[in-house]
Amino acid sequence: MIPFRRFALGLAFLLTACQPTAPRQIKILDGDIALTVTSSERVPVLILAEAGIAPQPLDRVLVNGISLGLDEPIPESGDITLQLRRMVNVTLITPQGEQRLQTSALTVGDVLSEAGFEIGVRDKVNPLLSTPVMDAMTIEFFPARELTISSGEIVTTIRSAAGTVGEALAEAGIPLMGLDVSVPAENDALPADGQIRVVRVTESISVEVESIPFDTETTVSDDMAFGETEILQPGVNGVAMLRTRIRFEDGVEVSREVEGETVLQQPKTQRVASGSKIVLAPVGGDAPYQYWYATQMYASWYSPCNSGTGGCSYGTASGARAGYGIVAVDYSYYSYLAGMRVYIPGYGVATIGDTGGGPIIESVFGVPRYQWIDLGYDDNNIGGLSGWVTVYFLEPAPAEIPYFFQQQ
Prior knowledge:
Layout: H1 4-14, E1 24-30, E2 33-39, H2 44-50, E3 60-63, E4 66-68, E5 80-85, E6 88-94, E7 97-103, H3 108-114, E8 124-126, E9 137-142, E10 145-151, E11 154-160, H4 165-171, E12 181-183, E13 195-199, E14 201-212, E15 216-225, E16 229-233, E17 238-249, E18 252-265, E19 270-277, E20 281-284, E21 287-302, E22 326-330, H5 331-337, E23 341-344, E24 348-356, H6 358-365, E25 372-376, E26 387-394, H7 403-406
Parallel strand pairs: 1-5, 6-9, 10-13, 15-19, 21-25, 22-24
Antiparallel strand pairs: 1-2, 3-4, 3-5, 6-7, 8-9, 10-11, 12-13, 14-17, 16-19, 17-18, 20-21, 21-26, 22-25, 23-24, 23-26
């Protein structure tokens, strides 16, 4: 840096033609220092040199409150007040980061202008533009950005320097209310792409009354015939009140959540007696048979050459020849029913002596495999009975009733 005395002598040499003819009183203010000198100089740096004050290159002077360069002649005549504005250090924070500046600017607005920033109406400046600059001051400057706010079908474009999405929405007159949400969230910084979406959220409470099915409790009765049941106590459904919270976003339902269930009436269990006593009964009609159990079963039919094997097959699980009078059941239940005699109206008497593909019937027709029976026919005498039929299980009754019959 050029020493102040050399700087002042150089200016004196250049400005010798500008010397005033008469001295005048000049009041000098330098921070807390105030003094009055008499000088015939017109250039501030020379006046300060005469007063023994050494300004720095970034310092500035105010002549009667008006900024003037250190090396510019003072245009006023008469007594003047010359204020030396010393350089100070300030910290400037912008979206680009933080920088340190040395300045003798008077106000925050002057600092920003000298730093090359154009200040718009929506820009955010802290402290205010008119705030006097002091040493070690921190200035925040956030220029406004263009934002697009979508709320339903309404699209609004604004300029904002808000710190958060919520602040920007408030500036735009589109505040979040109640359960409303925004994307990005209300407390998030403004998005890089400038896109903000407002979702209007409402909720309603639905109260419904529903029935609670009653349970059935079954007891075995040795006094009742097997297959018969008796309701000892009728069941009564209960009543419950459900409180469901329904959430709507922009008028569209997005979720339902059951918040609580209040039982207004407890269900009453139905008590049923199920017979376990084997009692023989006549089939009826022209059939001279006694049966111990009758049930509905889904019937299909097959014959030795119509068994789905691609050829003729006369073998069976029991060793008997396939044909009329031999019926099949699912392989998983065959061991419980093998050898039992049955009577089927429209078919006649048959022996359970073969197995078949119950799972196929179960998957295709939805019939439980234990309710399926496959009726055997001779190839030259196919009756083709199919569909739901009554199957009478003829005497003698087994020593133990198969468990799947007890569950029906």
